[in-house]
Amino acid sequence: MPDCFEKFEQNVPGPYYVTKACIGCSLCSEIAPDNFRASADPESAADNNYVCKQPSTEAEELLCREAMESCPADAIRNDGEK
Ligand code: SF4
Fold first, then answer.
1. What is the CATH number of domain 16-78?
2. Model's pTM, two decimal places?
């Protein structure tokens, strides 16, 4: 069983990250396509998404927050790190 609070390695450093609770529904990359992306890693156990870019504008921040609040698996976290 994957640790559901464990981050995927692919997440770029910063406050937002996707954990192994992700079910790969791709809702986050539809809401915030500049910040979330589906994994292209063939080694990845799950068909997960990850944070490919931390938000750098207020608009991106709003979309990332919306993605986090919309995630059906509660897999997107923000630990407030810069
Ligand atoms: S919305 Fe949540 S469960 Fe769906 S792909 Fe994104 S992180 Fe994974």
1. 3.30.70.20
2. 0.88
Which tens digit of pLDDT belongs to each residue from 39-52?
866 665 557 899 99
Query: Ligand 1, from 22, 35, 68: best to mutate by most atoms within 8 Å of Cβ?
Result: 22
Rounded to an integer, what distance in angstroms lies between the CA atom of residue 38 and that of residue 26? 7
Burial of 26 (0-12, 13-18, 19+ CB in 10 A): middle
CA of 28 to the centre of ligand 1 (A): 5
Q: Which residues sit opposite 17 in a β-bridge?
A: 77
User: For ligand 1, is residue 31 a contact (CB within 6 Å)?
Assistant: no
